[in-house]
Amino acid sequence: MAASAFFVAGLSLRGAVAWYERPFAGLLVDPEGVVSSLALPSWEGMQKGLRYPDRLLEVDGVPLQAAPGHYPSSAWDDAVEKAARDQRSSVRARFATSSGVREVTLEVRPLEPLAWWLYAGGPMLIASLYTMAALIAVSASPRGKLARTFAKVALVAALFLLTLFDYHTTRALVPLFLMAYALVPMGFFVLPMRLPDDVPQLRRWPWIPHLVDGVGWALAGGMLVLLALGETTVGLRDVCAVLFGISLLFFTTSFLVRFVRTKGARRQTLRALLIAMVPPHGVLGLACMSVMLGLPQAILWFAIPALALTPLASLFAFVKYDLWGSRALLSRPLTRLIIVTAMLTFTVTLCVACAPLAGASASVALRVAAPAAMLGAGLVMFALGAGDRKLFPARAEYKPTIEQLSEELTLVSDPGEVARAVERTVRRWLPCENVSFRQVEAEHDDDSAEGAEASGPRAIIARPSLHAGGELVLPVSFHGRALGMLEVGPKAGGALFTSEDLVLLRTIGNLAALAMAHALSYAELEQRRREQAAAWRDERVALIETLAAEITHEVRYPINFFRSIFQRGPHAQTLDAEEVEIGCEEVERLERLVMGLRRVTLRRIERRTRALHDLVSKAEMLLRDQLGKRRVDVRIDGPVYLQCDADQIMQVLVNLLSNGLDAAGECGDVGVSWSAGAAGAELVVWDTGPGVSGDPARIFAPWYTTKPRGTGLGLAITHRLVRAHGWSIGVERGDARTRFVISIPATDIADAALPAEIPEEEVA
To answer: Does 568 score more than 50 pLDDT?
Structure first.
């Protein structure tokens, strides 16, 4: 494919160069002798009213007719060349026009450079860009549908542009022009349906592209057959011209519709394609339609320059957003090679275009400019590389230096090691008498923080200063916090620091700032971890000591009591009723103590459906002695059933009501209320006491109590049992009441009072 493209480009370029300032008779005709639509307003043929599709009948008395191996227009070409050789200033020609047969005299003069560049040099340059874009697309994604469609359209468009001037002048590539003329519009019908991905219609009917290509090949075949038979192809060419304009307008319209209907991140991709591809294709479509309708062709002056940007802009958008789906890495050397090639082409083109100003022909300018540009590009690349190595070693060493430093810094977590790694890295590429990285503290070194900029959590290198004697000092800071000073210099032999030196030192300083901040944070985190571990050990020791003290305190009195009783045993002394009663009470208290310790350990909860009224009533009976003549104010509307562990919720209610009675005193009130909502319900245990004293944030902490004889375990156990059910509990004060609010989700509120077991759950 590439060889074919270069072959066609070579033939086209050779014929076009031969026509640079070649004599012509004020208009161009196609192989059939039809007046071409390629014309400038200053040409004599245009000024005398000759337009497409006027047909040339004879020239200088010689009628146009096809001959073996020659097109009818050969008589016109021979007549113009003969007039130029004979130094005649004009030719006489007869044309069949819409108003009848006309005979006109056309002046023979050289083809001006402007026309050559407009219809030959410019299209060929654009064709080379299309060919380059097609080759890149196929290389990036050989099997991708979009890449192959884009490459096919680009190659056909390049073929059309390469043969456009040849079709009206040299006529060596006429069949290729007719094929491209028929296939280009078909490509512009299919391409917008694949940008940036296939439209639903194309996914539903995948045969559409083949059908469209079939129509194009049918038109191309028809024109080639008519050309071989010596018949006119004007009718089919008119069809292709109409399809050409319609396809370009379809391309523009469909793309705009897809852009308007797209949202999100994909819209950004479409916006880039919209800017790159829609304007030039829209302008070219309007130009084609204006030619067919006989309107002024001034828009062509905008279409051709805009079309030159289309392959480059499209290629940039395709590569940037990887629309081909290649998932390949963008190669910097390859990209630079493409840019250099494009600039070489531009340089040669500019030299050839300026050749007439110096009195040189296009062929001479091309033979001189092409090798000179290639040799100049090679020398420039070599000189730039040598200059970088000799004068700017930092530029040449930038990548390996940064990679090596990054690897070293990932292995260290000590600030001192970070400083030594930075010093080693700078010494490898910068020959200096002194390289040092000095760690500083922001609160003690005001100079180090001078010039630092705080702009978020990122590394910042403040403005460097060049001290007397050639020493370069760069303050290093992170998030506005001064971390160190990088001092470099003077350079060996008193050499100057370069801008590339400064760029690399800034980058090293940024890496050092990040690594230093990480090292300091790591050291601080490690210190806090050790402190936390020590605090945890102290807390566990204190917890065990507290628990031992509580047990010792509770057990000491009954032990002393029973010891005194047992000591009287040998003397056969009997126990009175009061001693028996006290002993029973102490045994029960010890039993409660043991049971309380058991509930601190791991156990399982068993959910069953229980009536809330029954739970509250039982809790009230257990607290009958503490209540005395008072009653628990229960406000629960209707029957309410909970999925819960009855023993644990009973303990929760007893603990909360007992605390409430203690807080309310002998004259205060306690109560239970229930309020349901869509997401769940709230079970509230309230009292009219003075409220929570001490630290409210620690009210549910173990061993925390404000009572003179409290253990600090009641509310802690209550909190643990509520959380074990997946509920939550909090305390609040309002309306002269202290309210413990238990939030219960709707899933734990049963619809009926039917006993139902729920899978067991562990609770700590």
So the answer is: yes
